[in-house]
Amino acid sequence: MRLVTTTSVEVDTILARAIYNETGQILLNEGVVLKEGMIQRLQALGISYIFIKDNQTEDIQYKSTLSDPVRREAIQTINSIFLEIQKDANLTNSFVVEKASRRLSELIRFLMAELAEDKELINLLSDAFSYDNYIFTHSLNVTLYSLAIGMELKLSPKELETLGLGAIFHDIGKLKVPLDVLLKPGRLTEEEYIAIKEHAEAGFQILRKVQTIPLLVAHCAYQHHERINGSGYPRGISGKDIHYFGKIIAVADVFDAVTSNRVYRKAMLPHEGLEILYAGSGTLFEKQVVEAFRYAVAIYPVGITVELSDGRKGIVSGQNTGLGDRPIIRIMEHDGEQVEPYELDLKIELNIVVTACDTTF
User: Fold this and answer.
1) Are residues 78 and 210 in the same domain?
2) Does the residue 63 lie in any domain?
3) What's the pTM?
4) Residue range 292-332, pLDDT digits in tens
């Protein structure tokens, strides 16, 4: 399979992976022959990238970190819990959140077990590029990225559970932000931007009153937009004043935000998201956390076409555990000339690096 943009895919191309909406319903199933109307519909939904079948790469298979059924069940669990919390108009009933925290703790323990069993790099691309409803899928993705970072940093199971709960609840304050502001496609007014920024403190105020939730979980919601140079919000704290979990969730949050579709912009590819993290490493984000993220997450997903520093071009066919930016490449071209396909392992060929990605068909 190959990864291509919906703006470059040709009519009658075969879809290699099903596309779901935020409730887990299939928009288009695997094996569907894409027609003009389908492609236009995908573009209208904001879906930027899809996996397609290709004769030269039919043996290359993308493997998501969570199976489609497990992911749908997790999102539906988060969805139902958050909607139940939202029914309390002022979000003041701590009993509702307390009950929800027990169910979410069970979900986090399950996700921890899934990640521990599967030693491969975290790979959420096919899910991240599906049309999502902003809060629920984002909360799951940020939790998975945060747990992956925490595992790379050798946190204890108890610490991971607390971190996971902080990650899954990090945006709970957005339940108090009007949906038309959250999903506004155009530029926010100053008042709307202030309303968005208030979600961090709102989340803290909701969670700190819940006796069954560690206070640290509330601080994760409070601090995930703080930056180590003091340029973040809501308090503008810096350095050691920001809890380590807040620094972890900050990295996970930014990466998922920029690599997921939003009504106001298209998704970036993972390597572009990593470049944003690297640009802020040491100033906005903790260096150790960014490095742990790089080791744990697949930066160049299977199926994507890449260009190498020596003029060769190929498709990512596999990953190297612990080396998210050093995948295995199936070489297809050299200096613009097609060659007999062969595998090149960047874990071994250390003098060669990926210089560009190409998602055109």
Assistant:
1) yes
2) no
3) 0.86
4) 999 888 888 888 899 999 999 999 999 998 888 899 999 99
